[in-house]
Amino acid sequence: MPAAPRVPSRVSLLTEPPRAALDLAALTAAWPLLAAAPRGDGHPVLVLPGWLAGDPATLLLRNTLRLLGHDVSGWTLGTNRGPTGRVVQELRTRLDGLRRSTGRRVSLVGWSLGGLYAQELARATPGSVRQIITLGTPVARRAPWVRRASSLADRGPLPGTASVPRPWAERGPLRVPATSVYTRADGVVHWSSCRYHPRPRRENVEVRGSHLGLAHNPAVLWLLADRLGTPEDMWRPFRAPLGLRPLFPRAR
C-alpha cells in the first residue's frame, strides 16, 4: 500500500471556515445531549490554545466544561505566537501554581500547537499532570521538530520574549495518560500525524469535523467531559455512549 500523504489537501484547508461553522451548528443541535455528560470532580484543568489563537478561541469550550462542573482555566498569555522562552517559563509557572493551590494534579487540554505544549509540560513535570488531551495535534512529531519550532519562535520579532539556553522539548517518555483527538477531514494538520503509537494509557479517538471547529465540536466536548470526569486511578480507554456513537467513526 502506498504511504498516506503527510500534508492536508488544499480543498480541506480552504473549506475549514465553513466546516467549522457546521460544527458550531451541530453543537447547538446536540446541546440537550451534552447536558447528560459526566460531571467534574473538582480537579484543575488548563486549556492551551492553538497557534495565533488565545483564550477567546477556547471560551465556548471552557464555559461548556464549567457548566458541567469542571474547574477550567485559560492560559492567560495572549495570542499564542509559538513556544517562546516566555511561554515555556510562564506555562511551567502556571502549572506549578495550579498544582500547589489545589493540591491536585492538573489535566491539560491542548488544541493544535497547544497540544505540543501539553506534551512537553507532562514530560517535564509528570508528578503535576493528571492526563493530557490533545485536539488536532501532531503528536507523532519528534523532539527535533519541536526544538526547531522553539528556536524559530525565540528568534522571531516578538517583544518581551527571552531566549532559553536549552530546547523546549524535554527528555524522557510521556508518563501520563494521553488521548489524541483527530479528524480525517483536518485541513491544517494531516490526521496521520495525530495518532499515538499503541502503548498503555494512550489512545486515539476520531471525530467528524474540521480542525478549526474542534474546540466547539459536540463529540469533542462530550469526550472532554468524559475524560476529565473519570477518576484519576480509574483511567480506561474512551467508549462513546450508544446514542453518540455516530459522532465517532470506527477505527480504520
Q: Report the biggest beta sheet as strand number plus sense, adding barrel if it closes.
A: 6 strands, parallel
The helix tally amounts to 7
Question: What class would the helix/strand composition place it in?
Answer: alpha/beta
- Beta-strand proportion: 5-15%
Distance between the termini: 14 Å
Write down how many β-strands occur, each being a DSSP E stretch of 2 or more residues.
6
Portion of residues within helices: 25-40%
Name the poorly predicted regions.
149-154, 156-167
Mean pLDDT, to the nearest integer, reads 87
Cross-sheet strand order for the largest sheet: 2-1-3-4-5-6
How would you describe the shape? globular
What radius of gyration results from the CA coordinates? 17 Å
SSE run: HHEHEHEHEHEEH
Describe this protein's structure.
The chain is an alpha/beta fold and 252 residues long. Helix content is 35%, strand content 12%. The chain has seven helices and six strands. A six-stranded parallel sheet has the order 2-1-3-4-5-6, with helices on both faces. Helix 6 links the parallel strand 4 (129-135) and strand 5 (178-182). The radius of gyration is 17 Å and the shape is globular. It starts with 9 loop residues before the first helix and ends in a 23-residue tail after the last helix.
